[in-house]
Amino acid sequence: MSISLSIIYLIATITFVIGLKKLGHPATAKNGNLIAAIGMGLAIAGTIFIHDLQVPTIIYVLIGLAIAIGSAIGAWMAIKVKMTKMPELVSLFNGFGGASAALIGLVEFSKNVGDKMQATTIVSGIIIGAITFSGSLIAWGKLNGSLKSVVKIPFHKIVNNLFLIGIIAFAVFMVTTGVNEQVFVGVLLATGLIYGILFVLPIGGADMPVVISLLNSLTGIAAAITGILYSNMVMLVGGILVGSAGIILTIAMCKGMNRTLGAVIFGSFGATDAVADTDKKFGSIKKTNPSDAAIMMNYATNVIIVPGYGLAVAQAQHVIHELEELLTKKGVNVKYAIHPVAGRMPGHMNVLLAESNVDYSLLLEMDDINPQFKNTDVVLVVGANDVVNPAAHNDPSSPIYGMPILDVENAKHIIVNKRTMNAGYAGIENELFYNSKTVMLFGDAKDALTSLVSELKNM
Amino acid sequence: MNELIEFISDNLEITYILILAIFVGVEVIKNIPAVLHTPLMSGANALSGVVVVGAILVMLNSDPEDYLALTLGFIAVILGILNVVGGFAVTGRMLQMFKKKN
Asked: What ranges in A304-437 are assigned the alpha helix state H?
């Protein structure tokens, strides 16, 4: 490798570290993204143009074409996507990265027969790449609703774990015997793809954020493995950074949902026995209408809004901001309570609300807002369910028992906006709706909030 | 096992870098406010597209007559660059929405 390329890779690697670091602070995040992107551009350009290989022009043309096609599609998708659809897009992009790693492995396998260490990296690259690809596609399908949120596979824990052990055994066999038939590589690729599907399919939709983060981390590891294969520093360090950062993010998310990482990997959770309690009844609910709800909020001193995914689905983030502004103008103290996993990814709700210009000093995280509920007159829950379910505190048989929740039931009055009485994403009944302090405001979040706003304007 | 030890001693530099990079990744991400989890995940996702460098190397090293390798490399470059460009673009879009904290 020429010295100038090594230096370019070094610069790119530094931009990755600085970029990631800056992405972690609100004020510098935009810069961080830009710096890392520039570094990536340098690394790619350097790889294409600085080498001692005799490369025919046609190959340069093909590389240029591939880059043009991929960039155009990627940019188009990123510009077109609605902010509510963000998590599934990240999942899809991540799947593409994994597929790229698997394809590289396929090409390199036949060239490196006999060298056990190289074969090990190639075989691991193919497996991890294939798993991230198919797994990310399943996560994408689940999030955009084209796949059912919960799919039951009989004995999936045993089946999945046996399958994984099988793949590893097969990979070890391939490396130690040094087979070079393409059929074996094909089988390896196929089993990786199948495992990715088996791994993600039984996991409930509510737990998808953790899965996406984990798969993201795996793509990083696949990139790093490919980096070892080529002794390429920028791939190695870039991949490992993503891999270890991704694991930390995954753990942060698991904490928010009271899961352990081990439970994610070796025993799919989420869909478990969630159906068990659906028949339990807690009494009757009280319905309200927009005008009564508006009166309650108008005469309140402190109001907390709890936004959930329902708000995002209904595209109601702009109306809620209007409501918040209106109340503030009337002298009501309004804040938002953001559960760590509100929306579909941690921080997703913040992005959505930021999109509609909500001042983010009004967005309070769970630990900061929970002590404030007891001094709150009205809590407005919009399209959130599991994150305010008291069963997490007081029903040990509930699948979400132990998950940290927003202590909404401590407030004086609770208004819950929901489309229907259907159970939430985790599929469990919510006692909060039957609480004597709770009133239900049924309807699509956008319609309900719009009527609330117009009622308030007339007061 | 012997091969692993041999690999480590042959590639001491890579092994050092690997281990240090793991720690850098962990340290860089620690104590990130939840507000930025989504953009951060998205940014990290764009970085994992660095695998495109490998895909480009596959194409550069391919024999122009080796259509299979070229085709696979071609698709790998498209997918990898999609991950990079799409990832950075969507992260940028997300961050655009955050206003400066006063």
From this structure: 309-313, 317-329, 348-355, 366-369, 391-394
Last residue in a domain, options A246, A272, A298: A272
Per-residue pLDDT tens digits for A84-115: 788 889 999 999 999 999 999 999 987 877 77
| Chain B (25-84) residues lying within 8 Å, Cβ to Cβ, of chain A | 25-26, 28-62, 64, 68-70, 72-84
DSSP 8-class letter at A287: B
Nearest CA in chain B to A362: B101
Q: Tell me the domain boundaries of chain B.
A: 1-31, 34-102
* pLDDT score at B13: 83
Backbone φ, ψ for residue A289 (5° rounding): -125, 165
In this structure, the number of other CB atoms found within 10 A of the CB of residue A350 comes to: 29
Query: Is the per-residue pLDDT at A224 higher than 50?
Result: yes
Q: Do B47 and A36 touch (CB under 8 A)?
A: yes
Task: Please state, in angstroms and rounded to a whole number, the distance separating the CA atoms of residues B40 and B45.
Answer: 8
- Tell me the CATH number at A394: 3.40.50.1220
Looking at the fold, whether A127 and A255 belong to one and the same domain comes out as yes
pLDDT at A160: 84
A107 and A224 assigned to the same domain? yes
Question: Residues A308-333: pLDDT tens digits?
Answer: 878 887 888 889 999 999 999 999 99
Domain of A247, in residue numbers:
87-272
CA pseudo-torsion sign A256, A262, A265, A268: negative
- Nearest chain A residue to B31 by CA distance is A24
B96 touches chain A (CB under 8 A): yes
The structural domain count of chain A equals 3
DSSP label of A205: G
Mean pLDDT of all residues in A68-86: 91
pLDDT value of residue A1: 62
- Which of A67, A207, A239 lies closest to A139 in space, CA to CA? A207
Chain A contact set for B101 (CB, 8 A) = 26-27, 360-361
Q: What are phi and psi of A306, to 5 degrees?
A: -110, 100
pTM of the model: 0.80
Is A356 strand, coil or helix? Answer: coil
Q: Is the pLDDT of residue A267 over 70?
A: no
Q: Return the half-sphere exposure (C-beta side, CA atoms, 13 A cut-off) of residue A379.
A: 29
Q: Which residues of A143-154 are buried (b: 16+ CB within 10 A; e: fewer)?
A: beeebebbbeee
Q: Which residues of B touch A70 (CB under 8 A)?
A: 77-82, 85
Same domain for A42 and A109? no
pLDDT at A12: 95
| More confident call, A71 vs B17 | A71
- Classified as helix, coil or strand, A335 is strand
Tell me the catalytic residues of A: 386
Of the candidates A44, A104, A245, the beta carbon closest to that of B25 is on A245
Length of chain A: 459
